[in-house]
Amino acid sequence: MRRAGGRVRGAGDRGQRPLRVLFEGLWWFDGPDSNRQVLRDIVRAWAAAFPDDETHLVVPRHQAERVRAEAPPTVTVHGTRFRQHGLGCLLGVGWLARRLRADAVLTHNFPTLVGPRPTVFVHDLIFESNPEWFTRAERAYLGVISRTIGRARSVVTSSGTEAARIRRLHPGLDVTPVGLAAPSDLTGAEPRPPAAGPVPGTALAGGLRPGGFHLAVGRLNARKNLGFAIRVADAAGWITPDRPLAVVGSRSGLAEDACPAEPGSPADHHPADGLARLRELRDQGAVVFLGHVNPGELAWLYRGALSLIYTSRDEGFGMPPVEAMVFGCPVVASDIAVLREVTGGHAAVVLALGDEAAAAASLRAAGPARLRAAGTAGREHALRAYAWEDTARRIRAAMVRGLGDDGAARPAPLAAGAREAGTP
Q1: Are 301 and 246 spatial neighbours (Cβ–Cβ below 8 Å)?
Q2: Cα(61)–Cα(26) distance, integer angstroms
Q3: What is the layout of strands, in order, in the sheet containing 75-80?
Q4: Per residue in 41-82, pLDDT tens?
C-alpha cells in the first residue's frame, strides 16, 4: 500500500505529515437526508483541502461500485458486509481500519469497538437529554451511542451548543464543535418548481408562486414543532389559501398531531379536540404538505419563499436556517440557543416557544422591509461563516490532537481479544 509522502498542500495544515484516514460512509446512500449530506460533503471537502492525505471510505459492499462513481477520485472505496449503520460502525469499520493500519478514523454517532479508537461525529444527544421526543425503539437504538461513546479518541459535533450538551452529559469526552455548511448538492442544484403535488388529502389552491408562500422544512416529528408554527402563522394572518405555508419533509419517529395521516390510513386518525382548525387549514390549502423534494426543488422553494418558519424545540445544529440564509430567504426561528448560534443573530423574527400569542404578535410586527433586510444580512452571514473546507480542517485538527507530534498514532486500548495495529 502506498504511503503518501511530502508536505500537505492544504492551506490549513501545512507542516504536518499526511495521514492515512478512514471515513465511515455507511450513510452515503441510505442515511437520513441531512446526515447523508454531511457525510458526503466532509469527504469531498477533505479530498480538496488535504490532497496528500491517503483517504479511504468504507460503505456497504453492495453499494461500493455506485459510491466509487460519486466519490472523489483520490478516495479509495472499500465494502463491508454490514449494512446497518450502528453495527457497521461498531464492528465492520474497526476491522478495516486495523487492516489498513489507519492513522485516524472518522465515524458517525457510533464508535468502533475494535481497531484504532476513532474520532466520532456525534450529530446530537437530544435523545438523551429529552427522551420524551423519541419512540421507544429510537431510544433503545440511540442509547447504544451513550453506552459506547467513551471508546472514542475524540468527539466532533456541529455546533458549540451541542458540544456543551455532550460535555454536560459525558464530562470525560474531548469534544470539538466544527460547524457545517449548506449541502453542496443543494447549493449547486438547478432550481425548478416541485414536480409532484401535495401529499394525498391536502389541497393546493392556485399552485406555489415565487414570493407567494412561506416555507417549513424538516422531518415531521414532535421535536420539529410544526403545529406551533402553523398555529402562530395562522393567528398572525401570515398564511391563507393564496399565501400558504408549504411544508417539506416526511414523517419520522414520534409524530405530532399537525402531521398529515400516512397514505392509506384513515383521513385523520387524531382526536378532534384542538385540531379542527389545523384540518381546516389543510383542506383549504393554507397549509400544503409537499413531502420529500429533490435538491433542485428545494432550491426553488428557498428562492421563492417569503420566509422559512423553523420552530424546532431543539437541534444539534439546525441545517434548514443555514440553507435558507444561503439563498437569501428570511428566517423565522424559535428562540433556542442553537438557532441563535447558527443564525448569528440574523433571524428576521425570533419566536418564544412558550407563548403563542406573543409569537403571533412578533410575526405581525415584521413587515416586508424587515424580512428583506434579514434575508440580505443572513445570506452574507451564511456565506462568510460556513464552508465545508473549514469543517474538514477542524475535524482534522481534532484528530491530530490524539496523535503524536509526528502524526503517529499513540497506543490506544482495543476491545478484548483484538490485536493492536501500529502505524507503518
Answers
A1: yes
A2: 10
A3: 75-80, 54-60, 20-24, 104-108, 119-121, 154-157, 175-177
A4: 999 999 999 999 999 999 999 999 999 999 999 999 999 999
- For 109-130, how does the pLDDT look when each residue is reduced to its tens digit (9 = 90+)? 999 999 999 999 999 999 999 9
What's the distance, CA 405 to chain centroid? 33
Residues 348/366, Cβ–Cβ less than 8 Å: yes
C-alpha pair distances (Å), 310 with each of 53, 179, 412: 39, 19, 43
In sequence order, what are the beta bridge partners of 95? none
Residues 6+ apart with CB under 8 A from 172: 150
